[in-house]
Amino acid sequence: MGIIAGGKDQIAVVGAGVGGLAVAARLGKKGFNVSVFEKLSRPGGRCHLLEDSGFKFDMGPSFVLMPPFFKEFFDSCGEKIEDHLTLRELDVHYKIYYADGTSLSIHNDCRKTKDELENIEPGSALGFDKFIEHTEGVYRAVEPLLYKSFTFPSLLDHKLWPVVFKIDPFRSYWSVAKKYFKTEKLCYAFTFEAMFMGVSPYQAPSFYSIITYADHIQKVLHPMGGMYQIPLALERIAGKNGAKIFYNSPVEGIRKNKGRLALTVKGEDLDFDNIVVNADYPFSQTDLLRRKIKKYKYSCSVYLLYLGLKTKIPSLEHHNLFFSGDLDKNLNQIFKENTVPEDPSFYVHVPTKTDPSLAPEGKDIVYILVPVANFQEGEYDMACHEAKIRKIVFDKINEATGVNLEELIEVERKFTPEDFISRYNLKYGATFGLAHNLMQSALFRPANKDPQLNGVYYSGASTQPGGGLPVVLASSRIVADMIARQA
Ligand SMILES: Cc1cc2nc3c(=O)[nH]c(=O)nc-3n(C[C@H](O)[C@H](O)[C@H](O)COP(=O)(O)OP(=O)(O)OC[C@H]3O[C@@H](n4cnc5c(N)ncnc54)[C@H](O)[C@@H]3O)c2cc1C
Predict the structure, then answer these.
(1) For residue 340, what are the CA distances in angstroms to 22, 70, 426, 453?
(2) For strand 87-89 and strand 33-37, is the pairing parallel, antiparallel, or unpaired?
(3) Is any ligand 1 atom within 6 A of the Cβ of residue 251?
(4) Whose CA, among 122, 245, 283, 295, lies 20 to 30 Å from 399?
(5) Are the CB atoms for 36 and 13 separated by under 8 Å?
(6) Is residue 27 in contact with ligand 1, taking CB distance under 6 Å?
(7) 80 domain-assigned
(8) 293 CA → ligand 1 middle, Å
């Protein structure tokens, strides 16, 4: 392995996803001796890259939201974000296509958004202002909490109580929108972001409305060269700060070993003082620590198609959302009936609209994401649904834009719920890890420090504070600070 086991302040990180690389970079900067072990051959975890015939497909995240969290990471490592990422602001943040043929674009310029809202629901421009005022207050209250790890004694901290009152955790995300908009069309337009975390807007607590605040009011950015530039930057900074990264190195177990911790990699036991687990939390408990876990709720899964087209298709925006004709049924089929929806809502990403470097000249990339049920209540055969899903998706895109995508396909790849299990060790194919319902948020979400095994920490989407790139970056700060305090 080339590791000098022994010596003080030796830290292992299990996984080179965004949470693992960021914690390695921060700990390296603080002077720790860090070794990262990743099962795959490249960095990034769910923020992965697929290259085929000159097309560069970002396989996972596509939105850079909440830029202050990215800046905080680079600042904390003494780096300038602009030396690593060229972030381009989008004029149209995203476009929603409704099943009745109407559409709604969310613009960088809110005045334009409000004009469009008025066309759908007269009076809603005022509702928009009030919604934003409300969610801005919640955002300001929640932002500092995202850098904290909570345990039950945290409830005794009376300074937190006004914040809890402000964020009103017992209401749903949906109910916030319902307060300010009358039509279902707009309520969905202001809550669909719950699906970014793999939960229904009916079940997500109200404070997740900060995502809607962020994607309307803050910038929506695209890193030129693609989303994969983010893990590449983290890997570069981790390396610069002294971390050694070992790819193709799946970790098989973690256990206590004579006052230190032993990590088993490829049958070899390596000793460390601390271990930060970035591999998804439920997997780490059952497969690395050999523990029984409680019945958590898991996020939904997704079915993905990555298409390289023979030509450009100017009619789609960079980010596009196609809403189901029956939004309630769509959510019920994913979260209650645990299956693949008949008439799904889906997301279409066309990064080449902003960044032609991702495809050969004169060609476009189209990435289609369809939320589907996870396998927690039983595995279904995704293959049986694929032909139907493809037809619905292609027909809807054709109706809305006049583009017959199927005729334009040069390269086609897919990623299924099964792939999330086998590639990233995500239980039940739950794309976003543990669900973000109230009972799995804040102090109810797995803590960043293991309560039983001293020296074991967690940085990643299924632990506090939660999923999504900015929030995972925050978890890496929580863990790096905890380890530094205890050193
Ligand atoms: C399709 C999709 C779309 C998304 N869209 C967005 C978006 O637009 N914006 C956004 O902010 N977020 C988005 N997200 C969420 C975001 O990608 C995740 O929250 C984030 O990448 C999770 O990072 P992580 O480091 O916690 O976990 P991971 O990325 O899962 O990293 C964990 C790493 O651990 C490795 N590992 C697992 N087991 C082992 C083992 N035994 N030994 C060694 N290594 C192991 C895995 O291979 C992986 O590299 C999206 C996610 C997906 C999948």
Answers:
(1) 35, 34, 19, 39
(2) unpaired
(3) yes
(4) 122
(5) yes
(6) no
(7) no
(8) 21
Instruction: Quote the domain boundaries for residue 275.
Output: 10-47+228-295+438-486
Describe the strand order of the beta sheet including 260-265 as a list of residue ranges. 251-257, 260-265, 268-272
CATH number of 286's domain: 3.50.50.60
Is the CB of 38 inside a 6 Å radius of any atom of ligand 1?
A: yes
280 CB near ligand 1 (under 6 Å): yes
How many folded domains does the chain comprise?
1
Q: DSSP assignment, residue 467? A: S
Q: Does residue 427 sit within a domain?
A: no
pLDDT tens, position by position, 430-486: 999 999 988 898 889 999 999 999 999 999 999 999 999 999 999 999 999 999 998
Phi and psi dihedrals of 150, rounded to 5?
A: -110, 145
Using CB atoms within 10 Å of the CB of residue 391, give its burial: 0 to 12 exposed, 13 to 18 middle, 19+ buried: exposed
Q: Is 345 left (phi over 0), alpha (psi -120 to 50) or beta?
A: beta
The interaxial angle of helices 124-142 and 210-217, nearest 10 deg, is: 110
In a domain, 75, yes or no: no
Q: What is the DSSP string of 96-111?
A: EE-TTS-EEEEESSHH
pTM of the full structure: 0.96
358 occurs within a structural domain: no
Ligand 1 atom with the smallest distance to the CA of 420 is 53
Tokens of 188: 């969905």
